[in-house]
Design a protein that fits this description.
This protein is about 25% helix and about 20% strand. The protein has 7 helices and 12 strands. The model has no long low-confidence stretch (mean pLDDT about 90).
Length: about 250
């Protein structure tokens, strides 16, 4: 670029995306004189999904603004909890996760969240198109994917550890939780199942040892409080303790 120079300051939470040379305060940055602030910020390595407010000389300014010489630009991360424009807080959020976030998808479903997941790499264009068509927030650790313009909404997942990933998503979007209501395998809705109605799907030991069952309305998978229930219950209890009560809807 060879145009107006600005002073660029990135909020500390955005430093993870930027080169070390861009992490200071009022970093001299040359623009081309025609690109918008959104383009300038993306050129610094920041996905716009992670940007909240931008201040130019102290005044909040839209991404479309073309910066002029000498302007001081401050870029802030998204407010938490984040509200999507035009979406009432009462409307349940829907998520879409890329191929690298299977464990997170299963944990979000365990907590009752609508979390679609692609277990095969269908490509960035197809993911972005699905996000837009189904109005789902795309969760990804791929910065390039989050820069696609056709996305309905997106969010970078900052950790590679499942416990931290869950905490990150719940803290950012504050969704209403309804544990044990979704199939962790297919994202379908769970319903209570009579033991006799699922008898042909159970091993003999399961028939003798358990009385309470649920079945997915979509894939018909059967669930009961088996050997892994204590571990799953800990995940649920930790999430409820930190992020809210069970939905009564």
């Amino acid at each position: 670029m060879n145009g107006p120079g600005i002073q660029l300051t990135l909020a500390p939470e955005l430093h993870v995306f930027a080169a070390p040379s861009r992490r200071g305060e009022r970093v001299p940055t040359v623009t081309d004189g025609v690109s918008s602030l959104g383009h300038v910020v993306e050129s610094a390595g920041i996905p716009l999904t992670e940007v909240g407010r931008i201040l130019v000389d102290g005044a909040e300014t839209p991404f479309s603004h073309v910066p002029g010489a000498g302007e001081s630009v401050e870029v802030f991360g998204v407010d938490r909890p984040q509200r999507l424009p035009g979406v009432p807080a009462t409307v349940p959020l829907r998520f879409l996760l890329d191929v690298h976030l299977g464990t997170l998808a299963r944990r979000l479903r365990l907590l009752g969240l609508d979390a679609a997941y692609e277990n095969e790499d269908i490509g960035d264009p197809a993911l972005a198109t699905r996000s837009a068509a189904e109005q789902r927030i795309l969760l990804s650790r791929d910065r390039g994917l989050l820069r696609r313009r056709e996305l309905y909404a997106g969010a970078y997942v900052y950790s590679d550890q499942p416990d931290e990933q869950v905490r990150d998503v719940l803290g950012r979007f504050a969704p209403v939780l309804a544990p044990w209501t979704r199939c962790t395998a297919c994202n379908g809705t769970l319903r209570a199942a009579d033991k006799d109605s699922v008898d042909d799907r159970l091993e003999r030991g399961t028939q003798r040892s358990y009385e309470v069952f649920a079945q997915c309305a979509d894939c018909e998978r059967v669930y009961w409080r088996g050997a892994h229930h204590a571990r799953l219950e800990r995940i649920v209890e930790d999430a409820l303790a930190e992020f809210g009560d069970v939905s009564t809807g």
